[in-house]
Amino acid sequence: MKQLILALAVLFLFTESVNSQPRADNKFKKEFLERINQTRQQGCNCGVTYMPPVPPLTWNDVLEKAAMAHAKDMANKNYFSHESKDGRTPYNRVESAGYGTNGYKSYAVGENIAQGQQSIVEVMAGWFKSEGHCRNLMNPGFKEVGVAEYNTYWVQEFGGREAFSEEQQRLIKSGRIIIRRSTPAQ
Fold first, then answer.
1. How far apart are CA 41 and CA 54, in angstroms?
2. Spatial distance between the Cα atoms of 99 and 67, rounded to a whole number of angstroms
3. How many Cβ atoms from other residues are within 10 Å of residue 61's Cβ?
């Protein structure tokens, strides 16, 4: 009986480890958020454009899940691009991961990628030196972030969703406002 229980416990642990994606530990999340938000709080130059201070980002596990999936895909298929080999875009990936639009009146997504950097300090320095990556980091429309690293492939997914006001929600529920969604151009 003990052997059966032990075998089931081992099988359960093995199944859980195979089915779950690696999650960023708290130290990884904390270091990224501190580095990003310190600069967002101060403002900075992105290329020749000064970006004023903006509110801090919060960590989003769904965006992290999308980031990890893309980092693994790039590493495993040996490519480096915002567009997956199967044609998916950052928007497609975060939506597939569960970062949805329901209940929100606006929705924004952005992505930074890097390859080869050995530390958070190194990858963040590179992103802040690159004007486009820096603009993503300083974009006031982004409210949330999820970051992943897999075999030196780094992916940072940004999201910004604005909820409907209570009055708008009441009008939607009553049928007086109808929401029509369109998918962004691919």
1. 6
2. 12
3. 15
